[in-house]
Amino acid sequence: MAHEKALEALARIGETEAWRQAMIRQLIAFEGAIEAPGVDVREDLTGPLVDALYDDDQVVRKTLANGLTFEFLYRSKIARDFVMSVPEHPDHAWEPQTSRILVNLARLERTGGGARQVVIGGAYFGDHAVLIAREIAGHGGVVHAFEPNTEQRGMLMRNAGLNGLTNILPRAEGLWHDSSSNLKLVGYDSFANAELAEAGDDTFKTVTITDYLAAQGVDRLDLIVLDIEGAELGALQGAETFLAQPKGQGPNILFEVHRHYVDWSNGLANTPIAELLTGHGYSLFGLRDFNSNYDLAGRPIELIPMDAIHLEGPPHGFNMIAVKDPSVFDGPGYAIVRDVSPKYLRHKDPALHHPMGGL
Asked: What is the biggest distance separating any 2 CA atoms in the chain, rounded to whole angstroms?
C-alpha cells in the first residue's frame, strides 16, 4: 500500500512541470551530498524516482549548450540521464567522449575536406547523428542514418527539422552482411536487438553498406558509427569494399562490443570483429566513456590500445575506435592509457574506472 502511494505521489508531481523540475534538482543535489561507496546511486536510488515522474509516451525537449535542440521519448536510460544532466544545458546528449570523438573524426581532413559521407547504424533519436550532421553540413556532408524502430526514426526526423538540418537521410533498413534477409527487433526500445525472421508486418529488410551506397551513387565513405546490439560484425562485413581501401580513404569506425554478443574470453584481438578490422589494416582502441550524460568538458579523450583493455567484470559493453592512421590521436585532446577499463563508473575502483585525472 505504501509503495503504491509513493508511486501515485511521484506521478502527481510529474503532472506539473515546475514540480517535476524541482524534484529532479533535489535528487541531483542528493547525489552530490551523500557518500555511498560501492553503490550506483543513479541506477539504484535517484534514477528510478525520476522514472516515476514520466511515462513512456511523454515527449521531452532539451537544448544543448551549443543551441542544438532535441525532442525524445522518455523510454530509456539515455532519456533519463539526459533529463538529469549537470549542467542543465550540457555539451552532449549521451556519452560525452563518444560524442566528442565523433565530431572530431567528422572534422578530420580527408580528400575534399572533412567527412562527407557518414553511415550510422542505430541512429535512435539522433543523439549522435544530429551532432555529426551539423558538423559536416557546411561542406556538403551527408549522414545516412539507419534506424528500424519507427517511433525513434520519427524522432530522428523531428530533431533534424528542429535544428534546420537537411543532410540527414533516415533509413528503415537494418545494416547486415547481405541485402536479402528480413529482421525483426526483439526487446524494448534501446535494448532491442535484431534477429532473422520471416517477412511480416513487424520485420524490416536488410541492406549492406556497400549495396546501399552504390544505389545512392556514393563511392566514398568517411565514417561508420554502429550501435546495433550485436549486428556490428554483419554490418562491417557488408562494408568490406570500403574497409579494404588504403589509409586516408578507408573509413574511420566507431562500434560497440558487448559481452552478450562478442566472446572475448580469448582476448579481443581474437574475436571475429577485431580480426576482420585488423585484417584490413586497422588499429583498434577502447574508448573510455560514461554510459550516461556526464560533464567531461575539458578532459582528454582517453583511448586504450586493444591489447591493454581491462575486460574483467560482469557482462558489459563499450565503444571501440578503428582507424588506419593512429597518429590522428597524437595531438592535444587525446591520451593513450593502458590496463584500465573502458567503462567509467563512479561507484567502482577509481584506479580502473575513473578518468586518469580523477572525477
From this structure: 66
Q: Say if 88 falls within a structural domain.
A: no
Alpha-carbon gap, residue 271 to 273, rounded angstroms: 6
What pLDDT shows up at residue 112?
A: 64
Q: Which three cell numbers stand for residue 284?
A: 583498434
The dihedral sign for the CA sequence 135, 141, 145, 150: positive
Q: What is the pLDDT of residue 87?
A: 97
Query: Which runs of consecutive H residues, i.e. helices, occur in 111-149?
Result: 129-137
How confident is the model over 327-340, as pLDDT tens digits? 999 989 999 999 99
Residues in the chain where the model's pLDDT stays below 50: none
Indicate if 160 and 51 belong to the same structural domain.
Answer: no
Same domain, 155 and 51: no
The full length of the chain comes to 359
Are 173 and 306 contained in the same domain? yes
What pLDDT score does 114 carry? 83
- Is residue 73 a contact partner of residue 153, using CB atoms and an 8 Å limit? no
Residues 116 and 52 in one domain: no
Report the distance separating Cα 66 and Cα 209, nearest Å.
31
Per-residue model confidence as pLDDT tens digits over 243-276: 999 998 999 999 999 999 999 999 999 999 999 9
Q: Specify the pLDDT at position 22.
A: 97
Residues 6+ apart with CB under 8 A from 168: 126, 129, 130, 133, 142, 143, 145, 156, 157, 160
Same structural domain for residues 260 and 226? yes
In a domain, 261, yes or no: yes
- Phi and psi at residue 253, to the nearest 5°: -135, 135
Q: How many domains does the chain have?
A: 2
Residues 13 and 146 in one domain: no
Residue range of the domain that includes 63: 2-83
